[in-house]
Amino acid sequence: MISISELIELRHTLHREPELSGNEEQTAKTLVQFLKRQHPDLLMTAIGGHGIIAVYRGEIPGRTVLLRCDMDALPIHETIKISHSSTTGGVSHKCGHDGHMAILAGVSAELADTRPARGTVILLFQPAEETGQGAARIISRMEYHPDFCYALHNLPGFPAGRVITRDGPFAGASRGIIVTLTGKSSHAAQPLEGISPAPAVASLISYFNRVSIQAEGIMATLVHASIGKIAFGTSPGNATVMVTLRAPTAETMDDLSKRIEQQIKRTAGKENLQHTISWTEEFPATINATLPNSIIRSTAEQLGYKTTILENPFPWSEDFGHFTEKYPGALFGLGAGVDSPPLHSPDYDFPDRLIPIGIAMFKGIIERSLEQ
């Protein structure tokens, strides 16, 4: 039997050794060492990069349930002084994925002690969530087809231990767009001899602000813009603009993307500029199916955990949406404290007291899902 203190120490170890998306090598080694001691029926490594799958089978055939956690850290310098501070400069676990891994590791220990009576449980430790690439790679290589899939995310701003759910869209879709504009440089004393992209960039930035309807979760957020080079004798001839688009559903994302593309083409044409458009870091909306989401709520109720049912989906994205596109599934939140620093803040640290709550929730979810 693994104690909660051992799982807390595991989280602290993972927190000390954070790794960015696609580079989770040491993280995977730490987890594999732990998982081997839990004697899964099958342990698979290097799945979709540094991903890990641990499988526990019941004696009687039945449904397959997948639980997923994320492994990657963020390029954020940690500012708080804690005993388990990051030892990697400029990289830290500021989204709480270290806590998610500790919770799923705890589930593996529970399954090692008591395997399910029927069916199969898959524990997936997934890399590269922050870039939106990990889930898609895992799915393309995964031999299992779960009947249900589940994940959780810690959520500052809600009471600690509160379970947050929502039927339908839980977290929105997002994608990055990279626009290049090409005109013609000229001497700064003769700007009319060239074709500067500066007016087009200004026009597009204004348009992005106008097209956003934050109350509806529709946003076009400028994340980067550059015009020419630092040369005071030269009027610029090229520019790059990068924007993150967000929308609550796939349909609204497709509509927003088309409108953005059309505006870019119109603006470039008006200013006599060549242009290119490319897309990156695409996250589908995470859609909670009715039955698995009802299992989450009934599990929380039986355990005595208070729940909050969201009126609107979160505007941020989660690449677990790749799973809910393909399989019936649901993502739920665990409150990390009303006064907690927000996610991706340099002074955020996952609350250890959520570990036993997450384990209990997943254990109950497994039991109810395999009964279906």
Structure in a nutshell:
This protein is of the alpha/beta class and 372 residues long. It is built from 9 helices and 16 strands.
What does this structure look like?
The structure is a single chain. With 372 residues, this protein is of the alpha/beta class. It folds into 2 domains: 4-169 and 286-371, Aminopeptidase, CATH 3.40.630; 173-282, 2-Layer Sandwich (Alpha-Beta Plaits), CATH 3.30.70.360. It is 33% helix and 28% strand. The strands form 4 sheets. An 8-stranded mixed β-sheet has the order 1-2-4-3-5-16-6-15. The chain has a 4-stranded antiparallel β-sheet with strand order 10-12-8-13, covered by helices on one side. A two-stranded antiparallel sheet has the order 7-14. The longest helix is centred in the C-terminal third of the chain and has 21 residues, at 250-270. The protein is elongated, with a radius of gyration of 23 Å. 48% of the residues are buried.
List keywords for this structure.
8-stranded mixed beta sheet; alpha/beta; 16 strands; Aminopeptidase; Alpha-Beta Plaits; 372 residues; 4-stranded antiparallel beta sheet
Return Rg in Å: 23 Å
- Helix/sheet category: alpha/beta
Average pLDDT value? 97
Number of helical elements: 9
Strand content: 25-35%
CATH third-tier fold name of the largest domain: Aminopeptidase
In spatial order, strands of the major sheet run 1-2-4-3-5-16-6-15
Largest sheet data: 8 strands, mixed
Q: Would you list the SSEs in sequence order as H and E? A: HHEEEHEHEEEEEHEEEHEEHEHEH
Fourth CATH level, the homologous superfamily of the largest domain: Zn peptidases
- Overall morphology: elongated
Helix content: 25-40%
CATH secondary-structure class of the largest domain: Alpha Beta
Give the beta-strand count: 16
End-to-end separation in angstroms reads 28 Å
The count of domains is 2
Any idea what the CATH architecture of the largest domain is? 3-Layer(aba) Sandwich
Which residues form runs of ≥5 with pLDDT under 50? none
